[in-house]
């Protein structure tokens, strides 16, 4: 007796009864298309429209977006399947998640993150098999320049670099409060922010801690982004300095009593990380502190979707190495560099941790 396709699917579900992995798998195989549908809805400002209107019928969305009716119908169906947009009595509305995370144009909006991942991260993953097989970030070939990392090559594409750092800043802001509020920064007077990007972390730290000033040390093209941020931030501009340089080939600026690596070390290999920690140690006075803030995979390296995505991105595109290392790795490297009182604050938002040491 033949088994119908519906019967086969029922048999599959029964055989994996209460197995959440099956549901995750079914979403996973459809996720690339659905992700891009959500990104397109962001670009068409559909979430923004629904936030402003409360709800809207199809004709209102059609008039607002200017998208052909058939294609809009297909797009709205896809976005509705994610649950981010609901439809009732012919009217579309944001879910609470979409209203909070995707509709606003705030600096920490997930809309910026999604578009950054769409433009930079996810096109690279088509090259993942070759990157894994060869041990090189083969997707980097899609970007102009001869620099060995994405961060260097983005200097050749100002628009894409802006999109990238907007996404990075938005994601950083989603987890940054947990770092900014740490009591360890209350005793720091001059913080050296290595690879500080567009300056969002330093700006928030000096705003929170009145006696703190910071120096951002990063590539010239990135420092220009930080300069623009500081120009528009009178409360931080007089206490945040910019220093251009390459974190590997140039000496770290002196006179700081603390060094911060925020979302930096996980980009690199163990030898490179040890080199940067040694440079931090040499630049600090006795009693100076080092802070390592970023993603931490669990000790068994079996969980953490954000950490897993990040590690893949590093290896296929950003640097060809690195990962969201376990905190125990950072603790070992800090101790062997010479730092004492080494410890980690775990369980911070979005799989983050803060490892610290004292010279």
Give a description of the structure.
- With 359 residues, the protein is an alpha/beta fold.
- It folds into two domains: 5-101, Orthogonal Bundle (Arc Repressor Mutant, subunit A), CATH 1.10.10.10; 110-358, 3-Layer(aba) Sandwich (Rossmann fold), CATH 3.40.50.150.
- It contains 16 helices and ten strands.
- It has helices spanning 5-15, 20-43, 46-53, 58-65, 69-81, 96-101, 110-124, 128-134, 150-153, 158-180, 200-208, 220-231, 234-237, 270-283, 305-318, 327-337; strands at 56-57, 85-88, 91-94, 190-194, 213-218, 240-244, 258-262, 289-295, 340-348, 352-358.
- The strands form two sheets. The protein has a seven-stranded mixed β-sheet, with helices on both faces. A three-stranded antiparallel β-sheet has the order 1-3-2.
- A hairpin with a 2-residue loop joins strand 2 (85-88) and strand 3.
- The model has no long low-confidence stretch (mean pLDDT 92).
Write the layout of secondary structure elements.
Layout: H1 5-15, H2 20-43, H3 46-53, E1 56-57, H4 58-65, H5 69-81, E2 85-88, E3 91-94, H6 96-101, H7 110-124, H8 128-134, H9 150-153, H10 158-180, E4 190-194, H11 200-208, E5 213-218, H12 220-231, H13 234-237, E6 240-244, E7 258-262, H14 270-283, E8 289-295, H15 305-318, H16 327-337, E9 340-348, E10 352-358
Parallel strand pairs: 4-5, 4-7, 5-6, 7-8
Antiparallel strand pairs: 1-3, 2-3, 8-10, 9-10
Largest sheet: 7 strands, mixed
Q: Beta fraction of the residues?
A: 15-25%
Tell me the name of the CATH class of the largest domain.
Alpha Beta
How many DSSP E strands?
Answer: 10
Uncertain regions spanning at least 5 consecutive residues: none
Looking at the structure, the CATH topology of the largest domain is Rossmann fold
Helical residues, percent: 40-55%
Succession of helices and strands = HHHEHHEEHHHHHEHEHHEEHEHHEE
Q: Give the CATH superfamily of the largest domain.
A: Vaccinia Virus protein VP39
Shape: globular
């Amino acid at each position: 007796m033949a088994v119908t396709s519906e019967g086969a699917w029922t048999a599959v579900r029964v055989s994996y009864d209460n197995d959440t992995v099956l549901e995750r798998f079914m979403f996973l195989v459809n996720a690339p298309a659905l992700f891009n549908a959500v990104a397109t809805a962001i670009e068409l400002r559909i979430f923004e429209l629904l936030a402003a209107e409360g709800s809207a019928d199809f004709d209102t969305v059609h008039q607002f977006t200017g998208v052909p009716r058939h294609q809009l119908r297909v797009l709205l169906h896809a976005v509705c399947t994610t649950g981010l947009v609901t439809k009732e009595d012919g009217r579309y509305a944001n879910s609470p998640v979409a209203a909070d995370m995707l509709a606003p144009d705030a600096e920490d909006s997930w809309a910026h993150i999604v578009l950054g991942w769409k433009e930079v991260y996810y096109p690279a993953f088509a090259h993942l098999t070759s990157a894994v097989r060869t041990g090189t970030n083969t997707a980097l070939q899609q970007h102009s320049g001869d620099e060995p990392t994405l961060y260097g090559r983005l200097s050749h594409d100002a628009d894409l670099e802006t999109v990238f750092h907007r996404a990075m800043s938005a994601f950083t802001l989603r987890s940054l409060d947990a770092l900014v509020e740490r009591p360890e920064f209350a005793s720091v007077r001059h913080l050296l922010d290595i690879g500080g990007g567009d300056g969002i972390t330093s700006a928030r730290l000096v705003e929170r801690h009145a006696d703190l000033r910071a120096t951002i040390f990063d590539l010239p093209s990135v420092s220009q982004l930080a300069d623009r941020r500081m120009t528009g931030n009178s409360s931080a501009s007089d206490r945040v300095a910019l220093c251009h340089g390459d974190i590997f080939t140039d000496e770290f600026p002196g006179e700081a009593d603390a060094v911060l690596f925020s979302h930096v070390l996980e980009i690199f290999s163990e030898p490179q990380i040890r080199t940067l920690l040694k440079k931090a140690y040499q630049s600090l006075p006795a009693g100076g502190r080092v802070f390592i803030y970023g993603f931490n995979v669990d000790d068994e390296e079996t969980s953490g979707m954000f950490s897993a995505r990040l590690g893949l991105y590093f290896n296929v595109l950003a640097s060809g190495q690195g990962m969201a290392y376990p905190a125990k790795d950072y603790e070992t490297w800090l101790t062997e560099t010479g730092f004492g009182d080494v410890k980690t604050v775990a369980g911070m938002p979005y799989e983050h941790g803060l490892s610290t040491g004292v010279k």
